[in-house]
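Re: the 300-residue chain
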Amino acid sequence: MLMSRLLIFTLLGGVAAAQAVPSSFSSNGRVPAADPADTTTPAEISGLANPASRLPDLLPQPTGKPTLIGGIISKADGLRDEITIKVFGGKSTRILFDGRTHFYRDGAPASADDLRDGERVYIDTMLAGTSIFAKNIRVVTQGSAGQGSGQIVSYDNRTGALTMSDEISPQGLKLHVLPTTTISRGDRAVSSSELVPGTLVSIAFAPNPGREPVARQISILANPGNTFVFQGRVVQLDVHIGLLMVIDPRDQKTYEISFDPNRMNVSDNLREGANVQATTTFDGSHYVASSIQVDPTANR
């Protein structure tokens, strides 16, 4: 009798256990399909909860030829993919970068993490939509090879000592010009006699341990009194102060042109987006327009 009760209790316990655990089989004997697995990753969940955490889209495709600018890094922001540099004169410029940007430190490959506030930097920039985009960012430390642009303060043809008011540092850049230094204006070789004070130049230089860096190549951009004719589209205009900026399609560079609005008869068609031809004279610091002609047939 005891054995029979134990057997019944055991059977009842097994039935209860069977009812407590969900069966893997349906009533028709088939295995039901499993619920679809949730493939959302933690990063995607975080992005959905906080849209600001998503990676920013790439900038538009950069256009035109690169323009070299230099400065001192005042702020490098790796989170927003941007760098702010201060050029000679205290002007700050904000430049964006992304995965297409190449970084170098003293000529060696680097990354955005190697950007340090207060360091000297040269950047190949291009327009990406309305933003300035960095194609290459080169950090140059003391004694490293580099390139600078500015105006000649003094040049001693006898000793080869040249001082340039660099667009990066107001204290100037001292260089040594050798007989082997290449000096050119456009595609024409010229002599060192054209290295007069006030001349606008771009110089590529190399380190010279214990002495001033050696100028390897000097490109003369403008001498005081030279006449230049710019043609292109107006991208910025301020008639009150007499300033316009033109993108010249011949080299895809932007030029800042000054004019006297009180002495020059400014056309009513002069506006942003207009195509113009400006005849200018380089006065040692600015391109000053003597005439500005607007093409009234161009699309604006």
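Helices lie at 2-20, 42-49.
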